[in-house]
Write a structure and sequence with these properties.
The protein has a domain of 87 residues. 62% of the residues lie in helices and 10% in strands. The protein is built from 23 helices and 10 strands. The strands form 2 sheets. An 8-stranded antiparallel β-sheet has the order 1-2-3-4-5-6-7-8, with helices on one face. The protein has a two-stranded antiparallel sheet with strand order 9-10.
């Protein structure tokens, strides 16, 4: 004679069906009369069973001493792995016991995202009350990870209950941030709370998390600049997934540099990488270090970049002259085969001269002194390649060579100066070689996507600058390759270059699409209105409306 037992869970109750010998043959989770989730069906004699839910693409089974997962597209299932029958059954039961909490959490999240604040606050409060009380799967209350999860619930409950208006939310969020949080967790949580917090509230909490993460990176690095750069680079790359995250990173670093002057050069560097020019506050910090004789070459290089971006060519030239004098006092760098991977002392010297060469070439290019810029640009490209070589390492898993640095400024300078010298065939040859180097291009996409886009501008613009059909005829292959690497540019100059090439090819619809995006990102309407590359659109009503 079979019997049914009931076991209360954090949400709902398990119904356990036993055979005449008291052995479990079936288990289901019910909330009242509503069944939740999958059914565990067992054959104790054969020591086999299934754990399934109608309509699910994944089903689980046990037999012959092995557990196995089946999918809707694979009737035979995977090979599975050896596991004791009792252990598999207990694992399925634990999953059922915790299932109600998961469903309740999902409902709470859905309510909060939809703006049903009373319902979500009630659900989060229930989760806080029941978390860990009935389930071992959801971790014991004393477990550190469970405490971090409880801070997540506390924050979401506070947001729901106050519609995001409670001043105490900041403190609750700060407690949550002190856990070792990934960017995707932050993005998910702020996405859930966005309706209650509003755009300003979300931006403020993003800034709090960025500040906590940056402080952790700086503290972890101590006085080790190499470790600091690695930590900052990793965080900056991850923040690509968070809208406005990189700008918050740069702004926060400027704040921190006010208290810790050694961070000023980093603040300047990442301010430019975030897509803009760095702040006047950072410039003043760098100038203060320079006047006090405490500026390192990296500080002076960043100060020169400030001046170049602001159009202060005289100040930029004077700052670069100081850097040149320091570099001349050092032993010359040998860029031959003797360079060693992972030699961070050499890497620092390479970076000092590399950024000096890129900035000097950029300044001479702006001044249209292309003959003087040419040897500097060639040196910048050689330093860029050496820099990448020294910062490369062997992947411990597959033995492939990975790049820890993949800059683009030297390549930009090389192509730009060649264009200024009107050596268009040399630009075409060099640009094709750059595009064909797939491992390096993939590393640039990953490590320096903004610099890569300016490099593509330099290469593609040469086909337009020549104003010659013969040179333009070389461009379709490189343009196709560039669009494959960066199909949706974020740099307005590259979007505009795409528009010009499409217009020169006679692809008016594509040209207008790229032009619209470039103007939305701040590109000059006046420039576009008078650009000979866009004359094919001159009578198009959509074009005229865009550049009016």
């Amino acid at each position: 004679m079979s019997t049914v037992k009931t076991e209360p869970c954090a949400v709902g109750a398990l119904r356990l069906s036993l055979d005449a010998q008291g052995r479990l043959v079936k288990a289901e989770l019910f909330d009242g009369e509503k069944r939740l989730g999958p059914t565990l069906a067992l054959d104790p004699d054969r020591q086999s069973g299934t754990y399934y839910k109608d309509g699910d693409s994944h089903q689980f089974s046990y037999g012959g001493g092995r557990s196995c997962m089946h999918t809707a597209w694979d009737d035979e299932g995977q090979e599975g792995y050896a596991e004791a029958y009792d252990a598999w059954v207990e694992r399925c039961l634990e999953d059922l016991r915790s299932l109600g909490l998961g469903l309740l959490w999902k409902a709470a999240d859905d309510d909060l995202k939809a703006g049903r604040f009373d319902e979500s606050a009630k659900a989060y409060a229930t989760l806080l009350e029941r978390w860990g009380a009935k389930s071992t799967v959801w971790l014991d209350p004393g477990d550190e990870r469970n405490q971090l999860n409880r801070t997540t619930l506390a924050f979401l409950e506070a947001v729901s209950a106050s519609r995001g208006k409670d001043p105490g939310i900041g403190a609750t969020w700060g407690a949550w941030c002190r856990g070792d949080r990934e960017v995707k967790e932050v993005v998910h949580l702020l996405d859930l709370a966005g309706k209650a917090l509003g755009a300003q509230g979300v931006a403020a909490l993003k800034a709090v998390w960025v500040k906590v993460a940056l402080a952790r990176a700086v503290e972890s690095a101590g006085r080790d600049d190499t470790k600091l750069q690695a930590g900052l680079d990793r965080l900056f790359r991850l923040l690509k997934k968070m809208e406005g995250g990189r700008q918050a990173f740069a702004d926060t670093l400027v704040e921190m540099a006010g208290r810790t002057p050694r961070l000023a050069s980093w603040a300047s560097f990442y301010g430019v990488k975030a897509g803009g020019t760095t702040s006047e506050r950072t410039r003043r910090l760098l100038e203060k270090k320079a006047r006090g004789g405490k500026a390192e070459v990296a500080d002076l290089n960043n100060l020169a970049l400030h001046h170049i971006n602001a159009g202060r060519r005289g100040e930029a030239r004077a700052t670069l002259d100081r850097v040149e004098a320091i570099l001349k006092g050092r032993p010359p760098l040998d860029l031959g085969p003797g360079l060693k991977k992972g030699d961070f002392e050499t890497l620092k010297r390479l970076e000092d001269e590399y950024f000096y060469s890129v900035h000097r070439a950029s300044l001479l290019w702006q001044e249209r002194r292309f003959d003087a810029a040419w040897p500097v640009a060639r040196r910048a490209l050689d330093l860029e390649n050496a820099n990448r070589e020294v910062a490369s390492f062997e992947d411990p898993f597959d033995g492939s060579i990975r790049f820890g640095v993949a800059r683009s400024g030297g390549s930009w300078a090389y192509l730009s100066v060649l264009t200024g010298l009107k050596r268009f065939k040399d630009v075409d040859d060099a640009f094709r070689k750059i595009l064909d180097d797939k491992p390096v291009m993939e590393a640039r996409v990953r490590l320096d996507p903004t610099g890569l886009q300016y490099l593509l501008v330099a290469g593609l613009s040469s086909y337009l600058d020549a104003q010659a059909k013969e040179v333009l005829d070389w461009s379709p292959g490189p343009y196709k390759a560039a669009k494959k690497i960066v199909p949706e540019p974020t740099v307005s100059n590259l979007t505009y270059t795409y528009a010009c090439l499409e217009a020169r090819y006679g692809h008016n619809a594509a040209a207008l699409g790229f032009l619209k995006k470039s103007l939305e990102r701040g590109f000059s309407k006046t420039h576009a209105r008078n650009d000979p590359d866009l004359q094919g659109l001159a009578k198009n009503p959509k074009f005229l409306a865009m550049v009016r």
